[in-house]
Amino acid sequence: xxxxxxxxxxxxxxxxxxxxxxxxxxxxxxFMAGVSSLHSRHLEWxxxxxxxxxxxxxxxxxxxxxxxxxxxFQGEQIVLELTKMNLATCWNASIKINAAPAGIVVGxxxxxxxxxxxxxxxxxxxxxxxxxxxxxxxxxxxxxxxLEACRLAPSAMNRQPWKFSxxxxxxxxxTKSDLLxxxxxxxxxxxxxxxxxxxxxxxxxxxxxxxxxxxxxxxxR
Length: 221
Ligand SMILES: Cc1cc2nc3c(=O)[nH]c(=O)nc-3n(C[C@H](O)[C@H](O)[C@H](O)COP(=O)(O)O)c2cc1C
Fold this sequence. Notes:
CATH class of the largest domain: Alpha Beta
Radius of gyration: 17 Å
Structural class: alpha+beta
Distance between the termini: 19 Å
Largest sheet: 5 strands, antiparallel
Mean pLDDT: 94
Number of strands: 9
Shape: globular
Strand content: 15-25%
CATH topology of the largest domain: NADH Oxidase
Bound molecules: flavin mononucleotide
Low-confidence stretches: none
CATH architecture of the largest domain: 3-Layer(aba) Sandwich
CATH superfamily of the largest domain: NADH Oxidase
């Protein structure tokens, strides 16, 4: 179940010295090449031997909102796949390689060690659903699980800038603007990835469409 992977994932900021095996690299590259897209836009994901963790994953992506949402959407699917592989990750917006808006650090966690950012960002604490959902919170168990998967998504500075609204024609998801820059678009893509993957566990046909007012609609049939 993807929700289990989502629950396990957390940002790791202290890594052990560890070289990814050839099998791990091969699997990561294959997954990155086939990752689902939001706007049918293929991003060229690259795994480098950057000097953080065991490597850094990034893709060139211009600083445009549509590309940033796509970046978050594809990048978070990669993060969750790495989590399934028992690898630790951290999105990192201060890594700027080849016009990438953020890097994904990957490696093996050095457990029991906290960093300043762990403390500054609230140790992964999350807002509760009533603060995130506009209108009534659904009673339906599947929708509740999808919302829970969204609630647990990572975001820059743990701001959790998203809002949700459950309507008859789908789950609407949007983001509040970010005083710190464009990170809310990455965060929006990330939460859409959580919504998409969780919904696919319950529904045969799941798609995401752009709706009015910079909102996205998750359609489940
Ligand atoms: C787009 C994005 C950029 C981030 N940039 C950084 C960063 O530069 N440095 C850092 O330590 N953590 C960074 N993070 C990690 C967040 O602080 C973290 O996801 C958030 O605090 C929630 O904690 P969790 O991932 O452990 O659940 C970033 C996360 C996202 C989604």
